[in-house]
UniProtKB/TrEMBL annotation:
Keywords: DNA-binding, Transcription, Transcription regulation. Coiled coil: none annotated. The lineage of its organism: Bacteria, Pseudomonadati, Bacteroidota, Sphingobacteriia, Sphingobacteriales. The keyword Metal-binding does not apply. This is Substrate-binding domain-containing protein. Pfam families: LacI, Peripla_BP_4.
Length: 345
């Protein structure tokens, strides 16, 4: 049996009204009496009537849908961002379509192009580790697709952006390690061209310089896959800990890398990791299950998602062309959560 959705014609036939009267009543038209509106709305609620989204999109040239592109939904940071996105979007009458890039530029591009072909009203995106070419996004934006970047952004497209204070978060974590007596501090980070990589690396270096420590480039390890490849993380950690001059602490630049690094440390003997301190960006509570204690830099992920969505809806509903809008970058403060840094038995 084929499902047949209820239409305005069905309501009109049941109530003895014309379809135009029912349509105006559902829209709250001023030319319809309050009594007629009441009858129509009560009946519509009784039969669980919902407007046909396809018909609405054809009439208004809008789909009331927002596309979202993240590297991985299972990542605690991104799942919290998505919760923030949905908390605003659904209340504003928008559906949310979520896609994953898995840190791959090709997958990201396919996702965005598919969303655009579905005629989403706007796009929220955090760039993949592999993405170094945003020309396809620039083209869509120039054609009028509203885009808001969050977390991982680009300077090549003039639009709203919502980020954490990556520099300060990295600076605070690194300086905390220094104040706890660590002078040889390594840095495990993402692909070098990502905005968060540059900003957090700058904060790490600034803390070392402020405290009279030399930046040792041998201590800086890039993971091009952004934590998607555990073997890449394991190799970087092994290279650090088995070197002639191993670090006394490691500062880690992202959620996925932090959990991967903690897992990698379990493969080393107590002798190798004894006394090693760890600090890292993570919004995951799973790190508490590892035997290694961690000082964490937490980002306001839920708030980031909320703000990015509000800014996107403003762009979608604005009567002005995108070229005439004054765009802004919202920077949210991170939180340093202190824990016992010593490796536990």
């Amino acid at each position: 049996m084929k499902f047949e959705p209820i239409t305005i014609k069905d309501i009109a036939k049941a109530l003895g009204f014309s379809t135009s009267t029912v349509s105006r009543a559902l829209r709250g038209g001023y030319e319809i009496s309050e009594e007629t509106k009441r009858i129509v709305l009560e009946y519509a609620e009784k039969i669980n009537y919902h407007p046909n989204p396809i018909a609405l999109s054809l009439k208004e040239r809008r789909t009331y849908s927002i596309g979202v592109v993240v590297s991985e939904i299972a990542n605690n940071f991104f799942s919290q961002v998505i919760n923030g996105i949905e908390s605003i979007a659904y209340d504003a009458g928008y559906h949310v379509i979520i896609t994953q890039s898995h840190e791959l530029h090709k997958q990201e591009k396919l996702n965005v192009e598919h969303l655009a072909s579905r005629s989403v009203d706007g796009l929220l995106i955090s760039l993949a580790s592999e993405t170094n070419d945003v020309s396809y996004l620039k083209s869509l934006n120039q054609k009028g697709l509203p885009i808001v970047f969050f977390d991982r952004t680009t300077d090549e497209i003039d639009t709203h952006k919502v980020i954490a204070n990556n520099f300060q978060g990295a600076f605070d974590a690194t300086e905390y390690l220094i104040k706890n007596g660590k002078t040889k501090i390594a840095h495990l980070t993402n692909s070098p061209h990502l905005s968060i990589t540059r900003q957090r690396l700058d904060g790490y270096k600034a803390a070392l310089t402020k405290n009279g420590l030399v930046v040792n480039e041998q201590y800086i390890k890039y993971c091009e896959q952004g934590g998607q490849d555990y073997n890449e993380i394991l190799a970087a950690v092994r290279e650090l800990l088995t070197s002639e001059n191993p670090p006394e602490a490691i500062f880690i630049a992202s959620d996925k890398l932090t959990t991967g690094c903690l897992k990698a440390l379990r493969t080393f003997s107590r002798k190798v990791v004894d006394g090693l301190s760890i600090a890292g960006f993570t919004n995951s509570n799973l790190v508490e299950l590892f035997e290694f204690s961690l000082t964490t830099v937490r980002q306001p992920a839920f708030e980031m998602g909320q703000i990015a969505t509000k800014l996107l809806i403003q762009l979608i509903e604005s009567k002005r062309p995108l070229s005439e809008i004054d765009f802004e970058t919202r920077t949210l403060q991170t939180e340093l959560i202190l824990k016992n840094q010593e490796i536990m038995a």
